[in-house]
């Protein structure tokens, strides 16, 4: 079943304006879905109030996984399955295997973070991006507000956007295909 | 920027550090107490009374180079501690200059707000460098195997062909020239940089920034060579037979991360005294990242040196780690592993999260641990070759370190009063004020 989502899209002309607008709109109790800007605006991520990313936790887990995998692989191949005498050292001469354990920690962390990032942002092949206003890639700053997620009426939200300097307020219907 | 729409006025950035007479008194007491503890410690060790960890009586003459020279064990230990601390603090001082130059070369804006702090560090160079030179003249033969009587003389019974083969580099005159050159170049270039920096305060404009950047180019070129060669001279040549092509980098990495930790501690302590108003958790976060990253860099270089020696397993190379693992009855095993734990494992886990790098208390603890860890790096780098079985960790070590630390803080504080703590006309200062990560 498809669900419709209805967004109010406020369009602003200036990065400082949009930052102040997001703060004041949120202060009046309206939830902001997201803000789209042509360039990064300092402090905007905090102003929107998105929770902090947990990707560093994922990074640590992937790193630990890579370390463990290589530890077990070197242990199995070099000491258990086919022990080899190299330079008269112990079969499991740990320092020799630290470089490969290090490299796989880095590799797993890097790839793990990239894939976690893509998946958690819903970016995979064939996805059609929701574009609230194409001019957000040019010179406009766009605030999207999900009307369904807010208790306030559309008129109230529109007024809040206009009062904070939005030059236009448009309506955008998004059809989300049921997963 | 509506958010930051306050009027930015360089004149308002000016802050003058007040080196109060009570802190002066405390630091002078620290220096005197350090000297007193050193002397008491030396006296007690010479009489065979131990406080702390003393090994002097246990394993006389085990392993290392063989011949006994001149001074008694306790006196050697005093000289060795002075040398080690002078070398350690020389490093911290010159890293102040290195840090500032790196900031100029990388067009860094964020650090312009705190760059005056590391900029003050090289003021200690004439003192620590002077101590190095005096110690070399007075006790060169005690410190360095290659200065021993007859090692270069084919007629002598002490003749050592391997050391004699290095005589073109390791000889008295060339060593003195090099040491004077290192200290002179580092200090001289710093004096020029410091004057340009003060002129920038007085006159303003961007030309000073470009001049300092050009000077930074020169210093980085000089330091690229001298950071390695000074490590060979002052640290590696103690174990004269042994050499490692990785040693210069390893030694520099240890200096560098210690210098960054000292910078962080100095910035935080100034902040706690009410200075550096515009330094916030974003700037501290960057310093935290520096410490985190360069702790790992140090480990990387340390391990690169260790692994090749371990893997190749050549006796003339493995002797270095043999001495530290099991030589002299294993007395260097503790500092060796304390160094690894405090230099790598602790900072690696401690500074891993973002919050830890933005919290002053976390930063202070982490920076202190890094400094202690790298103190033991230099301890285990030099002591086996300098004193061998006569090493210990007691009043002599505490006293020497207290003396050097107090003297360092005194000289740096005095230097900080000579210019505004914030370089008010730095062209990137406004960027630093708005730094947000």
UniProtKB/TrEMBL annotation, chain A:
Keywords attached to this entry: Membrane, Transmembrane, Transmembrane helix
InterPro entries registered for this protein in UniProt: ActD
Residue ranges crossing the lipid bilayer per the database entry: 55-77, 97-119
Protein name: Quinol:cytochrome c oxidoreductase membrane protein
Organism for this UniProt entry: Siphonobacter aquaeclarae
TrEMBL record, chain B:
Record carries keyword Membrane: yes
UniProt keyword terms in alphabetical order: Membrane, Transmembrane, Transmembrane helix
Superkingdom per UniProt: Bacteria
Residue spans crossing the bilayer: 27-45, 88-108, 120-139, 173-193, 214-232, 252-270, 290-311, 331-350, 362-379, 391-412
Protein name: Quinol:cytochrome c oxidoreductase quinone-binding subunit 2
Organism the protein comes from: Siphonobacter aquaeclarae
């Amino acid at each position: 079943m498809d669900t419709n989502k209805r967004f109010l899209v406020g369009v602003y002309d200036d990065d400082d304006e949009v930052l102040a607008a997001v703060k004041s709109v949120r202060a009046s109790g309206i939830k902001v879905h997201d803000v789209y800007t042509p360039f990064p605006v300092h402090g905007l991520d905090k102003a929107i109030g998105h929770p902090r990313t947990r990707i560093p936790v994922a990074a640590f887990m992937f790193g630990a996984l890579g370390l463990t995998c290589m530890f077990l692989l070197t242990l199995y191949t070099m000491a258990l399955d086919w022990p080899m005498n190299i330079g008269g050292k112990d079969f499991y001469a740990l320092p020799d295997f630290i470089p490969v354990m290090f490299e796989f920690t880095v590799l797993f962390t890097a790839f793990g973070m990239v894939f976690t990032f893509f998946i958690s942002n819903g970016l995979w092949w064939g996805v059609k991006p929701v574009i609230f206003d194409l001019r957000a890639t040019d010179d406009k700053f766009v605030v999207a507000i999900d009307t369904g997620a807010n208790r306030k009426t559309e008129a109230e939200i529109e007024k809040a956007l206009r009062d904070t300097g939005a030059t236009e307020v448009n309506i955008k219907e998004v059809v989300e295909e049921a997963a | 920027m509506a958010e930051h729409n306050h009027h930015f006025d360089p004149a308002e950035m000016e802050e003058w550090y007040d080196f109060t007479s009570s802190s002066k008194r405390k630091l002078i007491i620290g220096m005197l107490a350090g000297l007193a503890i050193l002397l008491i410690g030396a006296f007690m060790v010479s009489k065979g009374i131990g406080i702390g960890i003393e090994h002097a009586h246990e394993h006389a003459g085990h392993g290392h180079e063989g011949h006994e020279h001149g001074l008694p064990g306790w006196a050697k230990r005093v000289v060795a501690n002075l040398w080690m601390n002078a070398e350690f603090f020389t490093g911290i001082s010159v890293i102040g200059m290195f840090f500032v130059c790196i900031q100029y070369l990388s067009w860094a804006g964020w650090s312009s707000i705190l760059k005056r702090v590391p900029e003050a560090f090289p003021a200690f160079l004439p003192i620590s460098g002077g101590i190095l030179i005096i110690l070399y003249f007075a006790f060169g033969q005690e410190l360095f195997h290659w200065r021993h009587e007859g090692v270069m003389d084919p007629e002598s019974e002490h003749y050592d062909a391997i050391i004699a083969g290095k005589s073109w580099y390791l000889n008295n005159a060339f060593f003195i020239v090099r040491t004077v050159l290192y200290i002179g170049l580092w200090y001289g270039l710093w004096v020029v940089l410091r004057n340009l920096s003060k002129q920038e305060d007085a006159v303003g404009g961007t030309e000073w920034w470009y001049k300092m950047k050009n000077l930074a180019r020169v210093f980085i070129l000089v330091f690229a060579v001298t950071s390695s060669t000074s490590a060979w001279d002052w640290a590696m040549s103690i174990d004269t037979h042994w050499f490692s092509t990785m040693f210069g980098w390893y030694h520099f990495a240890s200096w560098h991360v210690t210098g960054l930790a000292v910078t962080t501690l100095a910035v935080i302590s100034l902040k706690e005294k009410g200075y550096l108003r515009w330094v916030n958790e974003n700037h501290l976060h960057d310093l935290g990242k520096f410490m985190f990253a360069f702790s790992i860099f140090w480990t990387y270089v340390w391990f690169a040196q260790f692994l090749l020696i371990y893997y190749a397993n050549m006796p003339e190379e493995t002797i270095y780690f043999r001495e530290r693992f099991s030589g002299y009855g294993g007395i260097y095993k503790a500092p060796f592993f304390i160094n690894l734990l405090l230099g790598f494992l602790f900072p690696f886990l401690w500074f891993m999260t973002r919050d830890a790098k933005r919290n002053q208390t976390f930063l202070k603890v982490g920076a202190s641990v890094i400094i202690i860890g790298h103190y033991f790096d230099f301890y285990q780098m030099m002591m086996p070759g300098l004193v061998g079985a006569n090493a210990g960790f007691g009043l002599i070590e505490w006293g020497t370190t207290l003396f050097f630390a107090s003297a360092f803080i005194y000289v740096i504080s005095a230097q900080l009063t000579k210019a505004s703590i914030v370089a008010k006309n730095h062209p990137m200062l406004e960027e630093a004020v708005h730094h947000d990560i």
